[in-house]
Amino acid sequence: MKSDAILDRLLTLHPKVIDLSLDRMHRLLAALGHPERDLPPVTHIAGTNGKGSTLAMMRAGLEGAGLRVHAYTSPHLARFHERIRVAGDLITERALAALLEECEAANEGAPITFFEITTAAAFLAFARAPADHLLLEVGLGGRLDATNVIDPALTVITPVSMDHQAFLGDTLPKIAAEKAGILKPRTPCIVGPQEEEALEVIEYRAARLSAPLRIHGQHWHAAAEDGRLVVTHEAGLIDLPLPALRGPHQIANAGTAIMALRELGQGDPDAAMTRAHWPARMQRLTHHPLNALAPRAELWLDGGHNPAAGAALAATLAGLPARETHAICGLLNTKDATGYFAPLAPHLAHIHAIAIPGEKATLPPDAIAAAARAAGLSATPSEDLTAALVHIVRTAPEARILICGSLYLAGHVLRMDRPLG
């Protein structure tokens, strides 16, 4: 595709993959005529875990009420176009290529990161198409993230935990301060479940900006009761179906989404629960080429990659019917592998460690296996995904098989099937 060649060129415009700053973004947006000032009402979403799931439920709720919704997410899984939804539809190849070329010309070869220039392209797409709302997911952090150049109608902070310490800080309060950088004066914020030291930082920042907070555990609660989702808040109670997205951690994400829709005064809460879809978040594979290699096995795909995601995955596995469970795992070398594996130890019979295909930053299989063993798991390196799957099926043909550890590995699996729509 033409857009692939342009994206490859854009990767050469800055020597660092990640360089958090807003200066380059402001310069490019000015050259483009400030599309960030001509957007529909924006909900800006930051956090370590749960951003994408919360956004997916909000989008389902808004669209379920007949509203047109732009959405911006990252990273993509199968193809870049997934990052930009214009009034509900994935951006077309023709539109994407044209916008990328326009941004490339306006940038005039100046240093700029890949995420910054592609975010500018997304803003152009959103500014030029009518919609009722824009759901905007932070790429990394918040304070200096390329998305943090807008004036939102609402902000959302999902659970904050340890991740990306090299860029955001080596303590939870430092990371929370970066996430809280999306707060804006007098703009309300829905706050998902937080550790106390993270919440203190968020509350301090909000007080300085007079930003009203709606905090989980204080102003609202969400719980599964008798097969239903019950969200209680200061004005009453909302009784809903359980979220379509799997896992007990999705209860809090669902509550966050429902409270955000309530704050906006828009959306269909039932649709938010029943129609949301978010690939590679404990996704059951039933019609995938890999099913042919393991016809009697139960195949699952999950892209979580930090210790908090490992804990959420462990809780999800604990809620499934008992079954011998093997994991095929690939991780990036920037992740806390032992921290990710630790909560999973009671739930997995064995880890089959693989390299993530095509990723320079993949952690070698030997290192993944060593990290898993350090967390108390049985683990061995495997040549690749297919070899690991064949080995599992040979010894445990009816096992539950979980492919996990990275969104990049999840994307590889999904590309084996077909591009996402």
How are the secondary structure elements laid out?
Elements lengths: L1 H9 L12 H9 L10 E5 L4 H14 L4 E4 L11 E3 L2 E2 L2 H15 L6 H15 L4 E5 L16 E4 L7 H4 L3 H8 L9 E3 L4 H14 L3 E3 L4 E6 L2 E6 L2 E6 L7 H16 L4 H6 L8 E3 L12 E4 L5 H12 L6 E5 L7 H5 L8 E4 L11 H10 L4 E3 L3 H11 L4 E5 L2 H9 L6
Parallel strand pairs: 1-5, 1-6, 2-5, 6-7, 7-8, 13-17, 14-15, 14-17, 15-16
Antiparallel strand pairs: 2-3, 3-4, 9-10, 10-11, 12-13
Structural notes for this entry:
The protein is an alpha/beta fold. It folds into two domains: 2-274, UDP-N-acetylmuramoyl-L-alanine:D-glutamate ligase (3-Layer(aba) Sandwich); 283-415, Protein-Tyrosine Phosphatase, Chain A. Helix content is 37%, strand content 17%. The chain has an eight-stranded mixed beta sheet, sandwiched between helices. Helix 1 (2-10) packs parallel to helix 4 (93-107) and helix 4 packs across helix 5 (114-128). The longest helix has 16 residues, at 249-264. It is globular, with a radius of gyration of 21 Å.
